[in-house]
Structure formats: structure tokens, C-alpha cells
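Why run this: before we spend reagent on co-expression, it is cheaper to look at a predicted model of the complex and decide which construct boundaries make sense. The entries below are exactly what would go into the expression plan.
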Amino acid sequence: MRNLLRIIIAYHFQILFVILEVISIFLLLNQNDFQKARFLNITHNITGRVYKKINNTTAYLTLKKINYRLAEENTKLKNILERTYRSDEIFFFGESDSLHHQHYFYTSAKVINQTVNKQHNFLTLNKGSNVGIRPEMGVVSRDGVIGIVVSVSKQFSTVISLLNLDFRVSAKLAKNNYFGSLHWDGKDYRKVKLDEIPYHIDVNKGDTVVTSGYSSIFPEGIIIGTVCTSEVKGGNFYEIEVDLSIDFKSLVYIEVISNLQREEQIELEELSND
Amino acid sequence: MINPVSRNIFRMFVLVLFQVLVLNNIQVCGYINPYMYVLFILLLPFETPRWLLLISGFVIGISIDLFVNTPGMHTSATVFMAFLRPYVLKILRPHDEYKSGSYPRLYYYGFTWFLKYSLVLVFLHHTFLFYVEAFRMTFFFHTMLRVLLSTLFSVFLIVLSQFIIYRKQK
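The model came back. C-alpha cells follow.
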């Protein structure tokens, strides 16, 4: 006790300084709005950080429960998804519909079976004639051209893949509209050949190849791929190798295109051929 | 002769009134804000007990604060300055010790000594005051500029007052 008193007397100057300073700072923070606000702001920042740390830690402890709930929710959503795509609902989007003349009609479908490693590859879709799919409709996905419907049953339809030696489609170079014939050579599922491009055209690696729209199956301008190599081989035409933009090994959801004016177009074309 | 206590109390009143009525109305360019009342702390006798130093700093600070309506701001700065005064005096001690019966004034220890003495303490006081007033580090250099300019102006006034008032004595 005496020692304490001695210390207080010895350091009375410093102690008094601290006391007075504390009093004035207390006054400062309590009586001045600006300083008070700043002080609260700073302390809230600090406490906020501490709370965040604590919250981060406690979040770990509840992870198991949260994971379980997420898994449960995922299953539920998957079931809903399954019902939706298995159902016979039609998803369609208008195109070229400027004057109520819708030109193309899209139906979404799911690929349920396919091959890529044969010479004649086909796909099977989960929708058929009951939602309006007919033979000779084009099949595309967001990434590019897939093939053409060859036969339909009530629930399913088969599609001749772009990766089929019998498949040919009219394609063009997007930059200058020179068109040629596109086919697969049966070797690599990521590459196709484009023929009949005249040799005086400037073709560079990376040029985009799109559908020409001449076939009455595909609309114009659907992407197919990009030019990989090009060389002139004996004659007046390029032999161009095209990198497909679509990966046939990862197809799930695709769209079937029906050309609503196809009949009319073909009728007219046949008339003039006769 | 009036005794030193009442003389100091009288000086405190004069300085507070001068500060509140005159100097607080001066603000040049938004930077220069002289605070001359710290002269009171500067002029307290050497023999003043150190606790009394702090108390006087507290009292004059809070009386300024009450007029300006910023409780605590000037108080904390002035207490801070009063706390540092003994150390500054120790550092600035002339070769021969402070003579008994003398006061920390220009008259006794010369212009250079007084200038140094007031410059250091006023700068410390102003630094504390302006940073507490700004209460943030965002405008660090802007605040520093205010501190420097105000310090110069305050010291100028303090030294000037010494020349004017104490020339005639002795």
C-alpha cells in the first residue's frame, strides 16, 4: 500500500497527465458530433472485422449441415429438370419473324444416344413426331451445326450426324460469302473438309465457316467452325480443313429447326427445274 | 507588487478573452488560425509544480473550449503541451542552469532561446490540436500545412507580444 502510494507520488505528473487527457478525450468524443461519428465509425470497423472473423469460423462448423441441405436441393432441382425435358413441352423461338412470317421454328430436345467413332455416326433424340419433328429438319446447338433428322418415331428421332461420310451440307466463308460443300473425311471427330472454294479467294487460318442457307434445312449463318489449314490441290479449288466449333463428345441439349416455308420453296424450285 | 498567482490568473483571463474575441475571428486563406492563448503555459514560472502545470493547461484549454463549443479539443491539446513543457525546458537548458527568480521569457534568456522554446511547444500543441480536429489521416498533408502555417503565425504573435509588453519592465 505504501509502495503504491510512493509510486503514485513519484509518477503523479504522468498519472495526472493521463487522467486529464482521458477526461478531455472523453469530452471530445462525447460532445463533438464529428469526432464522435468518426470514433464510432472506426470502432465499428474494428468490431465489424472481429465479427466477420468469428462468423467465418462458425460458418465452417455448420458446413456439413449446409452441404446436406444443398445436396437435397440439388436433387430436387434435378428432378424438376428431368420432368421438364422428358415432358412433351415444346420450346420454340421465333426467327425471321418481321412480318408474321415466322421462317424457322426451334424445338429443344435432348441427345439420349450418339456415336462419334464410327464412319457413319448417328444421334438419337428424346423427342419425335408427337412434337412435330419430321425427317429432313436441321439439328443445331448453341455451338454449331450437328446434323439432319433422318427418321422419327412417336417419341424419338434419329439424326444423321455431321460426322457421317454420307452427310453433306452447303457452307460458306462468313467474310466473303463464297460457298462450298462441307463433308467429313471419317478421320478426326473435330475436323471436317470444305471443298469447292475457288483458289483465287484469300483464305486465312481462323476464318469463320457458317451455313450458307441454300439447303432450305439450316438458316443462314449458323456457325460450323474455323479454317484450320487450306491448300490448293490439283485444280481450281482449295481443300480446306475446318476445326469444328462444336464438340460432339459433349452434346446434351440441342435444337431441332423446322423450316416453315420449306414446302413452298421446294415446290417452286422443282417447278422451275422441270 | 501583485503576487505571481493573481498575476498569472489575470494573464489567463486576458489571453482567453483576446483569443476568443479577436484571434478566433481571424482565419486567413482558410489555413492560418493563430492560437495565442498557449502563451499562458509558456510564461508560467519555472518553479510551478508540475501538477499545477497540467491543471492550468486543463483550465485554460477548457475555458477556450467552452467559448468555441468544442469541449475537449483545446483541452486535450493544451494538457498535452503542458505535459511536454518540463521536458522541452530540460532539452533547451542553457549552459548555466535556469537562474532562480527568473522567468521563461525573452527578456531573461534572449530572443533565440525564446523563439526555439515557443516554436517547439506551439508546434506540438498545434499538431495535436489540428489532428484531433481533423480526426483522420486522409488529409494528412493538408492538415500538416495548416499546422505549419498556423504555428508560424502564432509564434510570430507570441514573440511580438513579448517585445511590446515586457520591454519597459526592469
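The helical segments of chain B are 4-21, 39-43, 50-68, 73-91, 106-134, 140-166. The interface with chain A takes residues 50-51, 54-55, 57-58, 61-62, 65, 70-73, 75-76, 79-80, 83, 86, 132, 135-136 of chain B (CB under 8 Å). Bring this page to Monday's planning discussion.
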